[in-house]
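User: Predict the full complex structure for these chains.
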Amino acid sequence: MEATLLSLAHGFSVALQPDNLWYAFLGCLVGTLVGVLPGIGPLSGISILLPVTFGLNATQAVIMLAGIYYGSQYGGSTTSILMRIPGEAASVITCIDGNAMARRGRAGAALCIAAVGSFVAGTFGLLMLTVIAPPLATIALRFGPPEYTALLVLGLIFLAYMSSTSLVRTLLMACLGLVFGMIGIDNMTGHFRYSFDLAELGDGIGIVPVAVGLFGLGEILATPSKHVTGEVISPKFREMLPTRQEWREAIWPIGRGSLLGFLIGIIPGSAHIISSFLSYALEKRISKHPEKFGKGAVAGVAGPESANNGASTGAFVPMLSLGIPTGPITAVLIGALMIHGVPAGPQLVSDHRDLFWGFVASMYVGNVMLLALNLPMVGLFVSVLRIPYAYLYPLIIMFCIVGVYEVNHSIVDVWIMLIMGLIGYALRKFSFDPAPLVLGLVIAPIFEQSLRQSLIMSNGNYFIFFDRPIALGLMLVCAILLGLSALSFVLKRKDWRDRLAKVEAGEG
Amino acid sequence: MDRRTFVIGTAASTAALAAGPAFAQEAFPSRAITVINAFPPGGVNDIVTRPFASALEAVFKQPCVVETKAGAGGQVGAQVGANAKPDGYTLLSHNNGISGYEEVDKLFGRQPKTTRGDFIPLARLVADPVLLLVNDQQPYKTAKELIDDAKKRPETIVYSSGGLYGATHLPVVLFEKATGIPKMRHLPTNGGGPAITALLGNNAQVSTQTVSATLQHVKAGKLRPLASFGGTRSKSLPDVPTLKELGYDVEYYLWVGIFAPKGTPANIVSTLSGAIEKAAASDAFKAAIANAGLEPGFLNAAGFAKFWADDAKRSDEAVKLIGRVG
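Assistant: Here is the predicted structure of the two-chain assembly.
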């Protein structure tokens, strides 16, 4: 512990050098912008700026590029809250309650809570990273296909809590998402599925175009058909800060989101998106007022926004201590290190002490910077809503198209987004909630792949999900959740019979 | 300004604009060159292509822009590269994958979207030999021990790859054939990184991965290289024997090459290959490759064309050996 503190102090002496501070600030600033602009996610931001870092040393490069990554998780919530357009994939779920809060005139409060939640989760994740990274990293390795399958079974169960609409509508949307998730090359056999001879559909339908289309475009298309009053969601400045009541509602979800996000972030895979969904479902499941979700529940913003930041910090654990990328973004960061002659691997901490601790310390500094950067901007962002829709919405559509194109340089993605916009419009008109569809789309390909991988490993034996400890634990949680739901269903029926009996008795 | 001067002025500037490109055609290149990278950021292709583009920029004194067109295991980028205007201003950076699409498409009775004839090979930039690796929980110390055990237990030992018919799947199949062992069980993942993670986590026992991608794990003792698929021993791992030394005729590299679309004029092709050779010989590019732990293995247009023909034969053979899986 003492050694850790000494190393960290050394790290701060590296991170607080003026040029390193400057690159951390630059990264955080770009990250915030990348997060705010819909579509353009951290991956494209980092890969565009990668060549810029060729002239820097490795420490400066990784400080700046990582700043873009965690900075984007701060900014991602902004457009979700203000305009119901996810700034990046991990902020999809914030659209629901964040935007509902904005409609009640609490946009400023939602933005503040998202920023503070991100800060708490980021700093908490860093503390964990500093103290217990090496033992945690070995857990990441033990998280193989069977464990992933079990986690996604849990995700599927949570789907039912995803939405404020009726269960049938939720499941319908979820199934649609799972079906969309089947599109693309079957990794196990090489067959193209539903790709209509387009190589671009080979990797399936991207989450970003679907999320931006369903939420953002759908929302914009639906706006002209309803009575719009401009002043509804632009509050006065002093009403911008969260009330004491709102803070109280936010504290525990932030804490739970931070922990959950960090743990899920360690797992290799596109876990930071799943972490925000799981956090939302968790908050709704344990909330005393689940009916408030979808109508502007503070916990529905605080939990997921903390979780996605916790996850982005958690993702550094296997990257820094084992040299294993948890996803495309950490893969690019490892690539950036390699270009600078620093091989990311188990020896990174011992061979490149300055870089490792300087980097960790710079993230503490970066999180403070981001908070300082984001809180004052709340007023600025909220005043964006004062722009008349006639000018604002065409601009947003432009940003959506540019952003979605930028992800893969693919015009097919733009078409997907436009078609999803029309679908999103129809769903809005018929009161369907698109969130379960997006979650279904996230889960389907990973679930299918890890299920089939597990069965390859076990030669077709389903027992593999029950003889590995982590998988077994997750499966038990699933069983308990299903059991509880079944129990409450039975109890409700009984309750209904009792009441009927009473009524009948009363009449009789 | 009266109307007449306006008209004359406009006509003159239009003429000047029209004359511009005509004049420029004499000296290639007169504007920015785009290098299509068919693989996502973070992979070997990206790590090689970006410093390559900046080195080429220095040779041509024209901007060289890397445009990532990833998807479908590199097929999206290959298609974009094949359909680009053959004027030398769009190049394609691709790897082994480009050899296999035709054969895989034939296997499934699909009309091949790109064939090898769609591309003119300009240069091979790197050739990273593939290693036969096991994780530290396996008992095998030599390739022979693995081969003997695999013979005893067909379809039991699991190997991970970055994808079906991919550059880390084919060498295993060639290895199986050369050593005469029965098939091992294949665990496809979605990329080189996840395949290595599967091996490290003992979800797979064997994998064939490049030196650069695994050197750190080898040094840390987490992964054990049993043999190399290279023609000669790797400089980074001089103690690891090649399969050829062990008496098995297999050779396989993960290479990155630069291609131009079919129909590019011969004079532009020769200008390009000269410039690429200079760029690849530059200190900046060599340093970037060395930093990434990659083995250079530069081949010029003629050398690469010959190598590619041989390599494609190996690739076709391996795809046929795998056949249709389901």
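The mean pLDDT of chain A is 84.
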